[in-house]
């Protein structure tokens, strides 16, 4: 997983222990620390601000109810992020917002490197282009480039094949380049 992730917030062991005991102040402190990065990730995955707010609340409440299951074999932030990603993707599947792909992707699809650091991903132009992509493509791009998930992890999360993840990455990267280049060309006219 990507250590550059905005989710990479370390929680002191004492605060986490208090939260596990149900201390409301500890739970609130954790919620406040993760509220911003959680919203950004949910918004990127869902493409809808209101839905993102709902997903953050649902995910945080679910995580707090299941806090006793956190075993500390990974950083807390990675566990919490996984809860959020799972909730967002399950919601999208329930709402049938992930488009059905008509043909099996090319297994030889070239993996492209878009290299989107989180500060670049905040750019309005890029956000506008991302919002015009299909939900599943946008989710793959964001999970791969910004959150640092592997194709295997993305395929598992989205209940699809690894080749689906690779093909969405390739197609999405190409489509983003086309959209961003077109806007750049239009601005020079």
UniProtKB/TrEMBL annotation:
InterPro entries per UniProt: RNA_pol_sigma-70-like (IPR039425), RNA_pol_sigma-70_dom (IPR014284), RNA_pol_sigma70_r2 (IPR007627), RNA_pol_sigma70_r4_t2 (IPR013249), RNA_pol_sigma_r2 (IPR013325), RNA_pol_sigma_r3/r4-like (IPR013324), WH-like_DNA-bd_sf (IPR036388)
Signal peptide (residue range): none
Domain of life (superkingdom): Bacteria
GO biological process terms on file: DNA-templated transcription initiation
Domain spans labelled RNA polymerase sigma factor 70 region 4 type: 125-176
Entry-linked Gene3D superfamilies: 1.10.1740.10, Winged helix-like DNA-binding domain superfamily/Winged helix DNA-binding domain
Residue intervals of the RNA polymerase sigma-70 region domain: 30-97
Keywords annotated in UniProt: Sigma factor, Transcription, Transcription regulation
Molecular function via GO: DNA binding; sigma factor activity
NCBIfam families: sigma70-ECF
Family, per entry: Belongs to the sigma-70 factor family. ECF subfamily.
UniProt-recorded name of the protein: RNA polymerase sigma factor
Organismal lineage: Bacteria, Pseudomonadati, Pseudomonadota, Gammaproteobacteria, Lysobacterales
């Amino acid at each position: 997983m990507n250590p550059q992730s905005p989710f990479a917030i370390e929680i002191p062991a004492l605060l986490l222990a208090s939260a596990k005991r149900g201390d409301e102040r500890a739970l609130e402190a954790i919620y406040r620390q993760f509220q911003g990065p959680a919203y950004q990730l949910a918004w990127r995955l869902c493409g809808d601000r209101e839905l993102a707010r709902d997903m953050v609340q649902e995910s945080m409440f679910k995580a707090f109810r299941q806090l006793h299951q956190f075993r500390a074999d990974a950083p807390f932030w990675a566990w919490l992020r996984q809860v959020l990603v799972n909730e967002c993707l399950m919601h999208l599947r329930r709402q049938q917002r992930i488009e059905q792909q008509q043909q099996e992707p090319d297994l030889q699809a070239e993996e492209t490197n878009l290299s989107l650091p989180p500060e670049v991903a905040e750019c309005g132009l890029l956000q506008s282009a991302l919002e015009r992509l299909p939900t599943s493509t946008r989710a793959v791009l964001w999970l791969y480039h910004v959150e640092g998930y592997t194709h295997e992890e993305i395929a598992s999360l989205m209940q699809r094949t690894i080749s689906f993840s690779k093909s969405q990455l390739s197609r999405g990267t190409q489509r983003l380049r086309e959209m961003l280049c077109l806007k750049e060309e239009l601005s020079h006219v």
